[in-house]
Design brief:
Helix content is 26%, strand content 22%. By secondary structure, it is an alpha+beta fold. It has a six-stranded mixed sheet with strand order 1-2-6-5-4-3. A two-stranded antiparallel ribbon has the order 7-8.
Amino acid sequence: MSQSCLPFDLQYIKIAREILSEGTEVVGRNSLRYKQAFGQTIKIDLRDGFPALTLRKMPVRNLFREFMWDVNGDYRVSNLGPAKHFWDFLADTEGRLAGAYGRSWRSWPRVCPEESMQWENFRTEPFDQLKWIWEQLRTNPTNRQLVLQTFNPGYQDLHCPPCHPNLVFSSDGEFLDLLVTARSNDMATGIPLDMFRYGLLCTKMAQDAKLTPRFVMFASANNHIYSQNEMAIRTVITNAPMLQCDVWINNDKPIFDLDPETDFELLGYESHVAVRMDVAN
C-alpha cells in the first residue's frame, strides 16, 4: 500500500465525519437543508487498487455505462439505458442533458473573440478536448497543457452546471496522474460515483498511452451532506472497509471503442449491501 494514500473508504469516512460533526448548516437553492464544509481533498493511488467504495454496494455496470456515455460525448439520457434514472429528472423535454460532461469533453463550443492577437489563435470549429489529450499522451506525454474543461463560464442559464470545472492530466513519461477540481461535491451521490469515473478515465488513458496509472486527486471546494441522506451516511460510515479491488479494461481497444457491457470488469469487488441515497434536484 502507498505510504502517502489511504484507501478510498477511509478517506471517505474521515470527510463524512468532519462534515457531520463540524459542517455549517445551510438551506440551498432547492430549499433543501444540508451541512457543508470547505476544502476537502481525496488522493488515491491506483497501483494499490481501484477506488470502488465498499462501505455500500456500487451500481458497477451502470457506472461503466455512464462512463462510456461521457466518453462518447452523448447527452441524450435515454442512451444510458438502465443507468438513465440518475439523470433523467434533469433532462429537458426532449431528453437532453444540458451541461453534460461528455458534451464538453468531445465538443467544446467555438470561441468567438472580439479581436485577433498575435499570439492568440482560436480553433474555428468545436474542439474535441478528450481526443486531443488522448493523442498528446501518446506522442507528447509530458505536455503540461492537458486540461479537460467542463464548466463553461459563458453559460447564461443552466439548470445544473457541471460540478467539476476541469481535469488536469500530468505525466512524467512513465506515470499518469489526474487532478479533478470540483466546485461542489455531494457525499451521498457524488464522490462515490465520481472517483469510480475518474479512476476509469486515468486507467484507460494511461493504458492507451502505455503509461502506468498512478494518482487520482479530487479537490473540492464545497463538500456537503443533504439532510435526507444524513442517517444513511451515518450508518454507512460505521461499516468496516473491505479489501480494495482491481479493474480490468480491454487493452485491445482504444477508449473510444469500448463496450460497457463486455470491456470492463471489477476484479475481487466485495462490499456491504446497497443503501438508497436520494439525489437532490
